[in-house]
Amino acid sequence: MISQEVVQAQPRAEHSRGKNEARRLRASGSVPAVVYGAKQPSVAVSVDPKQITRILSSESGHNTIFDLDVNGEKSKVMIVDWQYEPLKGKLLHIDMKRISMDEKMQVMVPIHLVGDAAGVKQQGGILDQVLREVEIECLPADIPSHIDADVTDLVFGHVLRVSELPHSGTIRFVTDANQAVAHITAVKEEAAPAPEAVAAEAATAPSEPEVIKKGKQEAEEAAEAKK
């Protein structure tokens, strides 16, 4: 999916690629990044993490194609790798790849299940989505943000497979056509414990303390003496 977003990038010198420089960049509100591909040399840059986060949070996510502006020179790129700080969740580093708009590429695209499955509404089953992403091949401009799979007619005994996913002639599925996408499963009922298990649990249950037993015995003897 092509976005109108233009990300401004500042080039970084070769000697400024260490950890100290990366910390300084993050402290100043930027994040280190690298852009490569399209038979051009890789370039170390710094970018605004807010723009990158906005792109990653969009409907097409990391499959978004946008313009990267480095000193006035723009190129179409995609985010291919990114790292977050484990505790605070801040972006630490981004890898971007230059995209040639006339060359096909392979990407992973999310699968969205739509509709109310008959196996759930009429048969009381549970809809189980086995595959959540599918790999496709197409031109960059034809990359969909997601693929909708209609499960309205899905019932017990039928498996929705990759070969049944809707697609136009502009994309080709790379994932195995027989790969299962979704099916209906039965509701699991909690089984009653076996008699052996009940007996074993009773055997391991803590016995009544001896002091209590003794107290009960003395009370019973006293009551008998009164009679």
Pick out its properties:
4-stranded mixed sheet, single chain, alpha+beta, 227 residues
Gross geometry: elongated
Q: What is the helix/strand order?
A: EHEEHEEEEHEEEEEEHH
Count the helices. How many?
A: 5
Strand order within the widest sheet?
Answer: 1-3-2-6-5-4
Based on secondary structure, the structural category is alpha+beta
Task: Round the mean pLDDT to the nearest integer and report it.
Answer: 84
For the termini, the CA-CA separation is 95 Å
Share of helical residues: 10-25%
Beta strands, count: 13
Rg, Å, rounded: 31 Å
Q: pLDDT under 50 segments (min length 5)?
A: none
Largest sheet: 6 strands, mixed, barrel
Assess the beta-strand content as a share of residues. Answer: 35-45%
Structure at a glance:
This protein has helices at 19-27, 49-56, 118-121, 195-204, 210-226, and strands at 2-11, 31-37, 40-47, 65-70, 73-84, 91-98, 105-114, 126-129, 133-138, 147-150, 159-161, 172-173, 180-185.
Molecular structure report:
With 227 residues, this protein is an alpha+beta fold. Helix content is 21%, strand content 38%. It has helices spanning 19-27, 49-56, 118-121, 195-204, 210-226, and strands spanning 2-11, 31-37, 40-47, 65-70, 73-84, 91-98, 105-114, 126-129, 133-138, 147-150, 159-161, 172-173, 180-185. A six-stranded mixed barrel has the order 1-3-2-6-5-4.
Ordered list of secondary-structure elements with their pairings:
Elements: E1 2-11, H1 19-27, E2 31-37, E3 40-47, H2 49-56, E4 65-70, E5 73-84, E6 91-98, E7 105-114, H3 118-121, E8 126-129, E9 133-138, E10 147-150, E11 159-161, E12 172-173, E13 180-185, H4 195-204, H5 210-226
Parallel strand pairs: 1-4, 2-6, 7-10
Antiparallel strand pairs: 1-3, 2-3, 4-5, 5-6, 7-9, 8-13, 9-12, 11-13
